[in-house]
Every structure is written in C-alpha cells, then in structure tokens.
Amino acid sequence: MRRILFIHFLIIASMSACQRRAEFVVPATAGMNWFKGNTHTHTTMSDGDSPPEVVARWYKEHGYRFLVLSDHNVFTDPVNLAALVDSTFLLIPGEEITAGFRKKPVHINGLNLSQLITPVFDSSLVGTIQKNVDAVRAGNGVPHINHPNFRWAFSQDELLQINNDKLLEIFNGHPQVHNLGGGGWPGMEQVWDHLLTNGKEIYGIAVDDAHHFQGEFAPPRSNPGRGWVVVRAKNLAAREIVANLENGWFYASTGVELDDIVVTPEQIEIRITPIRDFKFRTEFIGSGGKVLLKSESNPAIYKLTGNEKYVRAKVSDSGGFAAWTQPVLVR
Ligand SMILES: [Zn+2]
Ligand SMILES: [Zn+2]
Predict the structure, then answer these.
(1) pTM, 2 dp
(2) In the chain, N or C terminus with fewer CB closer than 10 Å?
C-alpha cells in the first residue's frame, strides 16, 4: 500500500513538473507552403495613378501570389479582373475604409470582403477606430489597422483599447507615414511591442500602400515593392490566406527572405535565404521590446529560457532591409 502511494506521489509530482515547464506555442503549419502577397495598394478607383488591371499585373509579374486592391471607400470586385487570376495569382477583394476623427485620419483595411463597407464616424477617436473594425467583422472581412503614425493619428494607448483586431501595419511603404516615429513619438515596432507586452495578441504586417506605378520610382513617391507578407497556407485560397494571417503564420518583409521558421517547444530557428554577399543580423525581441539575443548566424536560433512572455525576431541585412517574424507566445 505504501509503495502504491509512493508511485502515485511520483506520478503527481512529475505531472506538475510537466505543467510548470514553459514552452513555445508551436504553430500548426506542418506541410504548408509559403505565399507572398500585399494587402494594401491603390488604383484609379481612388487616388492611385493606374487602373486595377495595370496594378494587379504589376504584382503578378513581380512574383506576388496574392494581392488586395484596397481603394479608399471603393470596393474593386476582382470578378472584373478574372483574366489575371489563375493558379499562380489570387486577388482578394478588399477596401481601405477611410474615416476620420477631427483632423485625424482613421484608415482600416478590410480583407476578403464581399461588398462595400461604408465608413463609420463616432464621437471619439477610439470609438471611430473600433466601429470601423467592427464594420469589417460584420461584413465577414478581416481588418487591419493602417499607418497609425500617418499625421500622428493614433497613440499606442489608443491602439491598446481596440478589440477584435489582429493585424497592424508595422511597415507601410508610403513616404509620409512615419514608420520609425521620432521626436518622442514611438515607431511602429515600439508600438507593436507595447501592445504585445500588455497582452494584446497582434501581428505585424508590412504593406506597400502604393499609389504610383507610372513614371519614376523614387523614395518620395509611393511606389510598389516596398513591403509585403509571406504567409503559410495549405493552398492559395482567400479564406485560407486571411485566416492564417490572423493566426500569425507569416512574416513581414521589406526585402529579406526566409527559407523557413521552425518553432519547437524549446526553440525558434530562423533560416534566412542567402543572397549574393549580403550579411544578416537577427535580433530576438521580447517583452518591453527588450533584445534578448543577437545572432550573426544562419540559421539564427533562440532557445527558450522560460522567463519570456513572447519572442519575435527581426532579421536585418547589410543593405538596410528587414524581415519580421511574428511573436511566438510562451505557455
Ligand atoms: Zn491610408
Ligand atoms: Zn492606402
């Protein structure tokens, strides 16, 4: 009897030891493929300089697998562009719902919408953001919050009050959106860490917000090819792509490509795609935006210590481009 009790004690003790041990939450992405796409771009249906077919063709010819045409308060139905859609290229219907509060622009993208969403206005800034996020959800779309630093519109504490949103632009290719902050105002990566540190599960996307497909391609212009996401998915289907964006099964990039991101309960391994003689530096970042580890190796590997809440990585190359992996939560 005493022996049975002792074995019982051992089982209970080992079970509680298992429960105590921290581990990374492993994404269920086995066997999935990677698809590059952009979720924010403009055409002559609003303030872009080229018609939808020219814009969509630009992305298709540059190796993108999916695109959202997101015009201001205009729903561009991809049905009219069916000739461009095939097994290599998908158009996901969308819109940039363009509202505002006083002088502050409130721009919320709706991905995979079935029809136009009319912008909603409210008596507060937070209320205006929330009501437009809610309107996208009510239309069975996926919202993302656009360029918070454009005209210094939203603070990080206002963004923390928004519910039911999972995607935030941490890089937007438009020249006037102040991705990096300054003058005491946080940059988008700092904002992202502020939200994550305060327990909000939110993923960082990079987008073009392109308007200019004609003429010179130059930094002061709003050209395509500056920011994108690479999403893991079973197949190239709109619902699958937007669902996996909201699962955080993707990375955002301005130029750095990744071969793979391998998460196990104990570690995160980032396999960077080599390009010519470029060199890479990977920072693994946790709560409060603290850099937990810097790696100059490829692959870059972070081993869990057990004290983290989340770990994300930023891979920078020697030419100034970057890729951002999504936060892996610790349980
Ligand atoms: Zn906008
Ligand atoms: Zn835009």
Answers:
(1) 0.93
(2) N
